[in-house]
Amino acid sequence: MKPSDSPSRFEALLAKMGGVQPVPPRVPWSEVFWSWLGAFVGILLVAVLDRFVLQGGDWMLMLGSFGASAVLLYGAPASPLAQPRNLLLGHFLSALVGVSLAQTLPGLAWLAAPLAVSLSIGVMHLTRCLHPPGGATALIAVIGSGQIQALGFWYALVPVLAGASLMLVVALVVNNLAPTRRYPLWWF
C-alpha cells in the first residue's frame, strides 16, 4: 500500500462517524406505558406543587431540565445517568455552578452561559454524578427569568433539589411497580 492509498485523517474521522451497530430494537408496549406513567406523574407532581402549594407566578419549580430528567428516570431507569446520586447531585452541583457564574459575571451571560454548562459537566464528572440535564440546570441559573435570578443560591434548593427529589420519589414507586424494572441500581 502506498502512502497515498492510506485514508487521510479526515476520511478516518468520517469513518468513525458512520456508526458500528444497528438501531436498537423497539421496546415493548409495557415499557412505553411505564415510561409514560412515570413521566406524567413525576412532572404532574412538580407542576401541582408549583401551582397550588408554592403558588409560583413564573413556574418557578417547573424547570425545563426536569423534562430531560424524566426521560432518563422513567424511560431509561437502568442507565447510570438516571441513578439517584446522579439525579440529585448532578442537578444540585450544576445549580451551584450556574448561580456562582451568574453572580460572578452579571451582564455577561454570553460568557457565563457556556462556562456554566462546561464547568457543571466537569464538576459532575469529578464527583461521579454525571446527569445530562444538570447542564441545562446550570444554564437556567444564568439565563433564567428575573424571578429565578433573584433566588440566588436558594435556586439550588428550591426549585432544583425539591423538584428532583419529587421526581425521584415517583421513579422509586413507578419503576418498582413495573414487573420488569428495578430502581435504583445504586444510591450513593
Rg estimate, integer Å: 20 Å
What order do the helices and strands follow? HHHHHHHH
Secondary structure: helix percent: 55-70%
| Shape call | flat
Q: How does the major sheet shape up?
A: none
**First CA to last CA: what distance?**
53 Å
Count of the domains: 1
Q: How large is the count of helical segments? A: 8
* Percentage of β-strand residues: under 5%
Number of strands: 0
Structural class: mainly alpha
> Could you name the ranges where pLDDT drops below 50 across 5 or more consecutive residues?
none
Average pLDDT, rounded to a whole number, is: 93
Could you write a compact summary of the structure shown?
Helix content is 65%, strand content 0%.
What does this structure look like?
The chain has one domain (29-177). By secondary structure, it is mainly α. The longest helix has 25 residues, at 29-53. Helices cover 65% and strands 0% of the residues. It has helices at residues 9-16, 29-53, 64-75, 84-104, 109-126, 133-143, 146-151, 157-177. The protein has eight helices and no strands.
Supply the key terms:
8 helices, single chain, 65% helix, mainly alpha
Write the layout of secondary structure elements.
Blueprint: H1 9-16, H2 29-53, H3 64-75, H4 84-104, H5 109-126, H6 133-143, H7 146-151, H8 157-177
Helix pairs in contact: 2-3, 2-8, 3-6, 3-8, 4-5, 4-6, 4-8, 5-6
